[in-house]
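Table S5 (text form). Sequence records supplied for joint modeling of the two-component complex.
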Amino acid sequence: MTTTADRPATSSPTRVISINDGANIIVSHGDYAVIGTRPVRHDGVDKVTGRAVYGGDTRLNGLLFGKVLRSPHVHARIVSIDTSKARAVPGVHAIVTNADLPTAEDREVNLGEGGGNLKYMSDNVLASDLVLYKGHAIAAVAAINVHVAEAACALIEVEYEVLPAVHEIKAAIAEGAPLVHPSLTTKSLGKDTGVHSNITNHARLQIGDPDAAFARADVIAEGEFTTTMVHQGYIEPTNATAMWYADGKVTIWTSTQGSFAARDSTAQILGLPVSRVKAVPQEIGGGFGGKINVYLEPVAALLSRASGRPVKLIMTRAEVFQATGPAPGSYSKVKFGATKDGRLVAASAEIYMESGAYPGSDTGAAMRCLYSPYKIDDMRVDGYDVLTNRPKTAPYRAPGAPQAAFASEQVIDDLARKLGMDPVEFRLLNAAHEGTRLVNGPLHKKVGGIEVLEQTKAHAHYQSDLGTPSPGTKRGRGVAIGYWFNIGLPSSVAISVNADGSVTLVEGSTDIGGSRASIAMQAAEILGVRAEDVRPSVVDTDSIGYTGVTGGSRTTYATGLAAIEAARHVIAQMTARVAKVWSVSPDEVSHDHGAFRAGTRSMSFKDAAGHLDETGGPITGTASLDPQGHGGAFATVTCDVEIDVETGKTQVLKWTIVQDAGKAIHPSYVEGQFQGASAQGIGWALSEEYFMNSKGEMTNTSLLDYRLPTAFDVPMINTVIVEVPNPGHPFGVRGVGEASIVPPMAAVANAIRDAIGVRMHALPMNPGAILHALGTI
Amino acid sequence: MDDFEYVRPGSVGEAVALLAEKPGRARAMAGGTDLLVQLKVGRRTLDRVVDVKGIAELNEIHVGSDGGITIGAAVPCHRVYDHPAIVAGFPGIVDSASIVGGIAIQGRATLGGNLCNGAPSGDSIPSLAVVGAVAVIAGPSGRREFPVSEFCTGPGQTVLGADELLVAIRLPAPPPRSFGHYLRFIPRNEMDIAVAGAGAWVALDEAGVVTAARVVLASVAPTPIEVPDAATAIIGTRGEATALEAASEAAKAAARPITDMRGTQAQRRHLSGVLTKRALAGAIARARGEHVPGAHEAHRVHASATH
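The corresponding structure-token record, covering 1084 residues in total, follows.
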């Protein structure tokens, strides 16, 4: 049996698909029938006609509506909670507090990607003794409608003892700072130091001897940088609906990036075996890492147990900002050294990342990605996780890497300037490639960093001049590169053959970015059918094998592999059936391009499907796997900005993103990932921030004042898909969701430096910050 | 959000009576783009919402024989910026009406509501004030008129009594060669509340010398504030750079801004100057018969000419 997927992927040449100013220039589809084409997504019609059922659309008989009472204080001890007045409100069916949760053990639990400490997870869902940030959940009410629940919440009496708080990293690590968790001690390089501080962990990655290597450097550049807490900015608010049935089983309906992760976390927090909990994933209106952790699911379940009715909870936007997990702010010091001919010889960095109210931040990933674009023999990075009285941080698209790149890629830009070298040439000269040592130890596998940089340099954007600035403005261009390692994790797929030659594909990966299409297309390629002949369904946790979260840019890679394996399983069974029809040995039947052949005989997949009944009945192909062959990806951004020097306002004029996809299964959704990450990056660069008042309270808790970029703030985003196949996947898929958000902030900062001669050391680079940097105010 | 009574009177008298019945607990609603949001987030609670969109007089735009225009308090922004006489005579007001919210909001939001909401950042208030607009107010004892420039008394506070209703905004006939211009600064290009705003109005003589001027700033004090020194600095000049700079300095001196999530004190003070200079330059350009590059009225004039 041979299929197109058996062709060694590594023999494919590097291919480039370029979208310029909206005109699609497709260089090549490769040798595939389905892969690389752009069919209409399977869930598209439901979504554009409003039929798709999102978490908030969940309707159940007897549904009650819940509201959560949240802490008005940034840091306080809960002295008492009195719910009696609230319970007396007509229409109130249940009120729960942390006392309704089982006593959580202070132990780590494994939840696939990440995991966490059970007591912290439990306390974050409903506070036990302490509230650690404004918005921290304290109690919840279920009532006949949300207005009654809200009114009852207001009648819950909580007595607080307000405690001193720390609002940001530098204050948190200062001598004598108030402690967020007074009992915690700092772990450093794997050992408990016994020191009580807000630094929960200090890690170091080192290759060679950077201190000695700096002495050999002719040119050194360094800088200190800060980034503020930002939110993933998904549009659909966090939600959960739960029913605790009389037999003790619990079903949760929720918008999640991982139905199994939601099931497992909910079960852990509720102290139930996973077999008692079923998670039903609803359509999801954006996640970007922010819909992996559970916030409302266990609370809805407790309210349902207490009321005997299903209960739905939906956060307001203010709650989403204050009580879910945003991306951490950071403080970094970065230093690079190079020889006068432009070779990087040494690097050192310290990265502090806030974890918010409980330990655990994105520092490790930041440390792994910081130097990955470059070949440097001597390098060291120290990372520190810092507690603050802010929401517990959560992943946001390439968690940690964008903050680190904001620092490192500006220092690289400075070094290129000092050397008088073109910034892309400088990066190319030092580019990492297959076999280059990573700071965390392993060697780069086959990667496309050089190819991405070459395409960046050759692109018409980089070759163009900046044009004439409008009166009163200055223009500049910046470039930056970013890396994300991508991940594997378990996935399961089952494919059943229908008599009409179509197949149903059942998967556990929730679809946040077009993965129904990209997974179905991989199955279609193997089966030799059209993408439209595959009907993909994302199902609940009782209906498919364990599948990890949709995150880490893993889904098209890992669930795609499961689909390929399940399709191969189908073909193997179909081959035997065709052999039966033809009365030949299965060894004599081959399958390619959708046809079964033996000698001169041939039968289409569709015709073969029509013979199932008479040859032994239905066929289902299944695969559950835990692949390890994921490949890292590089992305560059080139951007032109125009700055009104009187107002400090930056307009992004032109933007080109080049990224190695390995193989673009559905190029439109790959471009969509590049463009979406670019838009988020522009917001993170120029306008988004958790604006805190002097008490550490976020004041801009609406989408009016938490300034996501609008369509007027984002230019046409040119995308270039580079395809350096990942040897760990039959089609070469790497995963595309995250590398693209790593370079934008640094690219914008470098463009601003180019335009006005000022180095920006903090995000966001809003008009006020530019005026400060210019010395105007 | 608590329950409230919704009523939709058909006349001014009826509306005033409905407001007077529940002093302080009833409020008039035109587009509702501020009021409903305030109710929803709990910033305001009411027993009664009096929807005034059903009152004919409040929905009229009346052009007087002298060129003055009366705009009903419930006329939405899109009717303002699409009205040929307003576009021709009061382009500064068109500047403002075109940037209140997005397109959908402009289909509901009104100048009257913007004024009665009394936000320091209200984009239409400077534009109305600089042309000498007058608020026509109805109450239990009849009608009174009050200058828009003094209408706001604090953040969210106005001279309107609890039993009074804004009926219309009256724009006096513009003198020859007189025009306004409004500019606000927002960090993004849409959907923001002004960090600072400046409305300017000038009248020129036949030689092109400024004979009269007014400047009103938004978002840099508890209410929109007039800057007479900026007007003085530009009167008697042709809008030369030095005069614009002097007006800019006057605006910076007059600004009394705060620091909040939308901008800092220093940034707002600085922007008061920049926007005053630019708004005056735009108003002067218009009075000379030129268009302001990029301003909405250029498109509106074009659009109405092709209708």
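Note: The interface with chain A takes residues 1-2, 41, 185, 187-193, 195, 260-264, 266-267, 269-271, 274 of chain B (CB under 8 Å).
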